[in-house]
Amino acid sequence: MTGKMTTRHFSFLLSRCFISFLILVGHTTVLCLVDEKLAVHPTTTVAYHFTDMMNGTTNASAGEDILPFDCGNNSHNCKNFCHLCYEFYQGPTMDCLSGLLNLCLHTFDVEMAQNSTNWCIWGNVSGSYSNLSLCTEEISDCLLIPWPNPLVEQIFVDIHTKFFKDCPTEELSDPPPVIIFALVITPICLIPVMVSLVVLKTKNGDGST
Description:
Elements (H helix, E strand, L loop, with lengths): L1 H38 L10 H6 L22 H12 L4 H21 L7 H21 L7 H14 L13 H32 L1
Helix pairs in contact: 3-4, 3-5, 4-5
């Protein structure tokens, strides 16, 4: 009876020790995993997000600072633009410029969509228009592509066709018919007057001699 009690007691103690060991090991493993996650720093990755690039929040990693082509330095976004072109186009090509300029155009479209005022009044759209111009100039300068260029010119042709085609162009319209008639008839009337003066002067000169 005493042997059975001893065996049972020993088994009970062994079970408790094993359970405690499992708990201890599990707890230690969890602690190790937590410590390991805290100790290991995440690998630096460069994510090219257009909006972040425009806000200047995306920075190229230190290992990617060397580019096989020249990159402009007129803006803090230049490195991001150049790295993007290198990653997807192997260089500052016109295709890459076209893709980046679409960012400028998209931003302009959003601002115009949010602008419920009259687009034909320059004061209402001058800010967005200037931002679009500066955006295209910044990207072109970063890629060392002359500005303006055919892609930029096409963008402005497109936005004028899309947003400002119905705006009156009074500044460029023809003057009233009365003004046009006066401008045309004045030199015509002066011709015979000038001819008469020349003839009269010639006669007076002949008579005096």
